[in-house]
């Protein structure tokens, strides 16, 4: 994922709005290979785009893939619309840029994800460069699932502690003092270019459910791995998988914080005893 941010920042070395909207443009169909914008709500895009890319195969497609890891974090529900309005602007009679208010909304949610990787929000996406809503531009919309707003969310955090072969009392104490405890298998894939990808494999099993929801927890942990990729890198060796007991709490702002991670190996009697005793344990 670090390589992703490097590519993106190189792409932003050119001023975004230095693109001359009076120059000759053409409309092309958004190809199926352009996954980040395939279901954005329109089928044709304008070239050159607002990054100045005019070659679909050599420039637009590879650069669009650079955005996929950020979008997969779910940092903002309109992040896709915002980014696609720049890299694949809709083909209409007028040039439609994202509104300043949309930029601010996406920036405020997604900049912390960038910061988690050690980067600032790109200067080329300075929201002051975008038009006010009085002009014709892409505005934020309020068509959101209000129930989803109340669900626990992943966030950037200090890396949780990892303790090998913990004693039974240590594990039971973590169960007592944290809001939830689950078991999950984390797999690390090795990709070309020395990039790694992490995935929660199989079902997430609850030890202490707390405020988590069964249908949402696997996705929640998957997003946590994407956002906290530097923490994830310390969990599993490349091309391996590891079962963990994870404990954590929900913060006042609705974000989850993983606090203790216990790798569960077959020889770890302390974890096995703690999970068996937990049902009848009094904190």
Automatic annotation (TrEMBL):
GO molecular function: Wnt-protein binding
Database matches in CDD domains: NTR_Sfrp1_like (cd03580)
Xref: Gene3D superfamilies: Frizzled cysteine-rich domain
Major localization listed first in the record, in broad terms: secreted
Keywords, alphabetical: Developmental protein, Differentiation, Disulfide bond, Secreted, Signal, Wnt signaling pathway
Signal peptide, first to last residue: 1-18
Keyword Cell division listed: no
Disulfide linkage: 103-127
Annotated compartments: Secreted
Domain NTR: 156-283
Single GO biological process annotation from the record: non-canonical Wnt signaling pathway
The protein's name in its UniProt record: FZ domain-containing protein
Organism: Oryzias javanicus
